[in-house]
């Protein structure tokens, strides 16, 4: 964990404990129970040569340990379907280099024991980001709920399009021919994480004493990073917040803005600027089909 985080009471903890990480499972027959000795991963499709990996092959490494913030496309603006976890795993790009993808391939179709599938851009996995075949989280083997024994984690892409749990098969394929669980239900075929920011404290409808009020929260734009966070009061000018440390462009960032609050009812809004300089859009969109957008907005009373 970087020094200097968790400095403002009421902000989401920088590190998400395994117990606190949100869960999304489509399997209605309970959480898959996969035994290590029965598990293997077949990497095939548009490749020079197929590969089958056993659990011991992954443990033989090299293993990388990386903080990566995972987010769900179903998250509403201001919502809680996001968490920052220390993942342990093998670089997916290394595995793909061993199978030698065909020049015409542009997608990975990952399949889970429960029939769930994800469709991920091949170029993103190969561009140097820390896409992982993860075997551990937060210093322990993956718990069953989060995909034991092995799952994918790809920074910058929503979970439904990258984070296949209980993964047993990866097919190198093409976007124009492949179909996946959520794309069959109308969700986006390409799903980069949208820049998002959230006010954690004060809470909505809070009553706070006049004077200096720390307004704080988190912001994320995985694999682009957060360059700035800005807050505005009652639709006024955007004011720069202070950013707390982030480990990399793949993790969220806590922020705080010290507000000299005058009595009355006020509306606060937050927006982030990502590492490319792009400002988070205020255009309101629902999560379907490719992620929510708009400013997190808080109404409170200063007394
Ligand atoms: N096999 C399987 N993998 C899955 C899912 C699922 O339902 N089944 N849900 C996906 C979605 S929508 C998200 S956001 C992430 C959530 O991972 P978590 O449940 O470990 O937080 O896993 C992804 N991987
Ligand atoms: Mo999700």
TrEMBL record:
Domain Oxidoreductase molybdopterin-binding: 30-178
UniProt xrefs under SUPFAM superfamilies: E set domains, Oxidoreductase molybdopterin-binding domain
The protein's name in its UniProt record: Oxidoreductase molybdopterin-binding domain-containing protein
Organism this protein belongs to: Kineococcus glutinatus
Lineage of producing organism: Bacteria, Bacillati, Actinomycetota, Actinomycetes, Kineosporiales
Pfam families, alphabetized: Oxidored_molyb (PF00174)
InterPro entries cross-referenced by the UniProt entry: Ig_E-set, OxRdtase_Mopterin-bd_dom, OxRdtase_Mopterin-bd_sf
Domain of life: Bacteria
